[in-house]
Known about the structure:
By secondary structure, the protein is an alpha+beta fold. Helix content is 38%, strand content 27%. The radius of gyration is 35 Å and the shape is globular.
Amino acid sequence: xxxxxxxxxxxxxxxxxxxxxxxxxxxxxxxxxxxxxxxxxxxxxxxxxxxxxxxxxxxxxxxxxxxxxxxxxxxxxxxxxxxxxxxxxxxxxxxxxxxxxxxxxxxxxxxxxxxxxxxxxxxxxxxxxxxxxxxxxxxxxxxxxxxxxxxxxxxxxxxxxxxxxxxxxxxxxxxxxxxxxxxxxxxxxxxxxxxxxxxxxxxxxxxxxxxxxxxxxxxxxxxxxxxxxxxxxxxxxxxxxxxxxxxxxxxxxxxxxxxxxxxxxxxxxxxxxxxxxxxxxxxxxxxxxxxxxxxxxxxxxxxxxxxxxxxxxxxxxxxxxxxxxxxxxxxxxxxxxxxxxxxxxxxxxxxxxxxxxxxxxxxxxxxxxxxxxxxxxxxxxxxxxxxxxxxxxxxxxxxxxxxxxxxxxxxxxxxxxxxxxxxxxxxxxxxxxxxxxxxxxxxxxxxxxxxxxxxxxxxxxxxxxxxxxxxxxxxxxxxxxxxxxxxxxxxxxxxxxxxxxxxxxxxxxxxxxxxxxxxxxxxxxxxxxxxxxxxxxxxxxxxxxxxxxxxxxxxxxxxxxxxxxxxxxxxxxxxxxxxxxxxxxxxxxxxxxxxxxxxxxxxxxxxxxxxxxxxxxxxxxxxxxxxxxxxxxxxxxxxxxxxxxxxxxxxxxxxxxxxxxxxxxxxxxxxxxxxxxxxxxxxxxxxxxxxxxxxxxxxxxxxxxxxxxxxxxxxxxxxxxxxxxxxxxxxxxxxxxxxxxxxxxxxxxxxxxxxxxxxxxxxxxxxxxxxxxxxxxxxxxxxxxxxxxxxxxxxxxxxxxxxxxxxxxxxxxxxxxxxxxxxxxxxxxxxxxxxxxxxxxxxxxxxx
Length: 848
């Protein structure tokens, strides 16, 4: 009987683990027959086994729940939230009873009269309140080690019902016994097997190290076979420990459902990728972080129904939970479509707690500000509730994830939601690693993060320097480099001198790829991962340590931690973030010119036309190239080296126009037109270019249109006469000023550009007058709306037309802008729309 009870506890605990999810799905789907049948079978089996084992309290609770579910199954009653709540209460009570059985071998004492009454009331359509019992800790789990038997098919009947129910049927009607398809093994036994396999790997590595130094050793062949057997055994043991990640988020539908009821919110939890497998040890360590993040999404992230309606969203909030495998890591994303983090409040709380100064906060990007939520004790909640508000949680989430060699990152979008991305290793026990050396010290790099190895010197790649930072141009892309020795303080940094030898290990970090500069690369080894000692836990660059075959203890590098220490990100070299200028999403034309492999980008809105001119139309005029184009002689300006094409060939040209004047910029080929949000890194070293940016994943030079227009026609920006409209441009982006001023000048405006509203108002104080003001909306300090209010308040510009520029020009934004008093509200880089709005605004004012 004891063996049968143990089997019953294990089977029932596993069945109940899926029951919460099924009940929540049943409530959402309104009585799905298949889901209902699954729930009914489970509760029915629990009741039957309880009667067979003489568990009267358990049988009474299960029987009451079965009666209600039977009515739902037969269509005699409709599934209701009150009924589902009552059944969930019964499931919790069953768990409590099972916990007592596991501890003492007997049913714990307890009164379930109120719960049974609630279940009976739900049968008649009444909905009395149900007090759900506290769920006790589960008995020690076991996992199923499947051993396929070739001589017999898998018994479907046994698989669909718990074994205890099958045993009851066997007593009533004995049948031929079927071969056992699986056995249950305690997790303690599996952990011990994993430890022994790890030690065997270490011994194997030591023996192989010895064999490498011996010539014609008689042990070479046996060691080779031992190595293969060890690898196979290690893989087999690992498979027994692998579990689907859905086992960690099984309770989440129930949690979301209960929190939605408590908070008065409608929440839909969508899960995908639950069959992705990872090591049980890792799985156990991410349960609590996942639960906390989902609870935060329910409480902080999602708005209530009224707020969502007001924001134009569906009343039901959505939390999406996805998992996938990338190399040797599992990536889990938790995304909600809520309000996003209140970054204004985050900044204020960070300033209040002394985490950053006002100047530092003003210079920070939104994603950096959002990461303050990972600081210990940080909370933006206005009040402490039973769900959240104590500032305990996200720092623990990050600590727990990083303790197992993982990372957690956060992205938030105002009004659109928040996404947390967790990257964790598949296993913490044995991994394949590349052993490298820097400054005389050896380190292990997880093989799953190594993309490729590049040799330096001897005809291989060479290291270049960009603003004192090492970079590697690899297949046309600029790869930031991190010199491992200087980063870890093991040697002095090289002062601008490129190393003549060594290797670059191209690694995949969280934010993108970068190169790790090392002196020597050794072999790849299977290593046993040991946790970092507590005294070294705060060192971001390490994820553990290991013992090599020669007995040496070395540190295991954490590629994501190394990237954070060095400050490298996706597609950029190690540079000061303050030098990088973010530019709103815009259409850019990508082309090549001058025979250079590096692509060049220019905003499409500043170009009048794209043409392919026949070679026979290109002539020499005044010692310079020109082309007959639309009845005029158009100057041609090449970028870099250019040879005129043959008469029967075609020449790609970018045509710029200013009234009747035209100029053609000669290019090699038009590559594409794309939409990009440019992160421009300004540069004054290369004439004719504003700097560089990442476009379509490649380092791209950004064209300075004004420079090339002056090359073709020095009078292009000549002094205008008094009849030309005077225009004030207020724009904090230096990139946009340099792009839009030539376009506006070409359209016949005398343009004065200022970087902020304060400088613009200084012109007003000095008595300057303009026919129109074109201003950006989002600017540091005084924004466009505040500038408009100040101008309209009083003074000589009170009646001056003002047109707003913005990266977001949807119907809502346009309506708001016009209501505030702007003559128009137009999108950046839409050249035709900007010119049309200015013309209309100035014409309207002149008519007035």
